[in-house]
């Protein structure tokens, strides 16, 4: 299991549709990077200036929208994840 | 529903008039980006250095003026939104 | 009405004389941008690190000197305004 | 009267001698910018992180040394002033 | 023994497999830098703005994922280590 | 007298030997800038984030080592001084 | 004696072996800069945002590992030292 540190979250990106509307399968580099994902694990929180931890706003299982290209890609147990700072998460989809 | 994080707000931009005064319909790229919008959802507030949240000044339903090009464009449920930091909102129109 | 956010102020610039001393009317781009203006509306104040708001020093009706090129130009109800951060206001003229 | 904001001061620069030692009057651009001046007005002080104002160290009437090229030049009532941040004032001459 | 300072950790990188799937041994520069490692020693913690130390989240013996190219490489007692700031550690593998 | 502001100190640089070991007098630009000096005056101290002044560590009369090229050169009463931030003073020679 | 200021330490670098394994004495510029040293003197500590000093983690006599090229080289009493910020010290060798 991956336990992110601090204000980080582990997100499993939702793959965008791999066919264009005309039905042509695009090669990998032509696809836009995913912007939506599911939170798999969250860190212990933001460390404030006076040394306390503030719990993150997002929780395990949340569907989130995040900035394109944000975070670090990581292959773990054969699956691809992103490790993002909560700050790169724009919104939760409810 | 989109719930923005922290000091972010979701704004639905007000489309600017698509015809110039001479009546010519401009192609998409020639139009100035919208500067006005309606707040659809607001985040939980700014996290201060000592770990408290301060509620945002803008509220759902407000008409706001925001910096051109600020924020991230997002298509959700077929509509286009912007996710802005409150700091990019210049003023509320009352 | 425009209500600026936080440490911002709405200023109506004082138009500088549009004729040069020789009486020639200059085209728009040759004029120096205005440096003086009248405060039309002020924000709710600066948000400090511990989450309190400190009222601005400038008040509605003040004549102010501000940095050339500072702020964002805004056309509202047919008039031109500037939205500035108080930090771009150099001095009040009394 | 000019009342500077925050940590700013209004300084009237002391003109440096306009002739070189050989007696040649230099054109304007060849002169070194003034480094000494007299404080005409001071702001209300530095706003600290916890929202208090700390009075400036310099006072009206002080002779000060300031960084070359610092601040904003301002013509007011036919005289030339500089608006500087106190941080650009290096020392007081006593 | 190496005792890292402050928010630093000493990590022994896990060597990635030196053969590609086709069985060809790659020269050193073609290999991707390791992203996983074992924590050998941890610093005394983060120094907060009010002068207290907050213990690190990672502990000796943890398996960690860290940013590629982060930290400083160090040869000590014939072995290669990395000294990283805890901030460059993305997650703990449990 | 020069009274530096805040965390600044006025230093009289110790002139380095103007002859090289071979006895040749070097032109001005070939000499390395002085790195040692004597503190002539000190400011009122560092202003902390909560608005208090912390007295400087260096005192009038101290011999100090400072970063090459740090600070602002100043000619005052015919003598050359440097105004440095205390942060540019590396060590006191005792 | 050199007394460093604030968060600085004076380090006497440990000279790396001046011969390569093949026995050739390398000219000065070809040698890698030292990464290990002995702490000769330490400053009074880090000044926190609320104006207190926090003692450094390293102490006189410690063997330390520090970033290559960090700090300022200083010749004093015929010996070569480095003045480093504690932040450039990576670890203590125990």
Architecture overview:
The structure is a homoheptamer of 94-residue chains. Chain A has 94 residues and is an all-beta fold. Chain A has strands at residues 2-4, 8-13, 36-42, 46-47, 53-54, 63-66, 72-76, 79-85, 89-93. Chain A is built from no helices and nine strands. The radius of gyration of chain A is 15 Å and the shape is globular. The relative contact order of chain A is 0.31. The interface between A and B is medium-sized, with 19 and 18 residues. β9 (89-93) of chain D pairs antiparallel with β1 (2-4) of chain F.
Short structural summary:
Chains A, B, C, D, E, F, G: This is Co-chaperonin GroES. The structure is a homoheptamer of 94-residue chains. Chain A is 0% helix and 44% strand.
Q: Any idea what the CATH architecture of chain A is?
A: Roll
The ordered string of helix (H) and strand (E) elements of chain A is: EEEEEEEEE
Give helix % range of chain A: under 10%
C-alpha termini separation of chain A:
26 Å
CATH class of chain A: Mainly Beta
What percentage of amino acids of chain A are in beta strands? 35-45%
Family (chains A, B, C, D, E, F, G): Belongs to the GroES chaperonin family.
Protein name (chains A, B, C, D, E, F, G): Co-chaperonin GroES
Main location (chains A, B, C, D, E, F, G): cytoplasm
GO molecular function, one term (chains A, B, C, D, E, F, G): protein folding chaperone
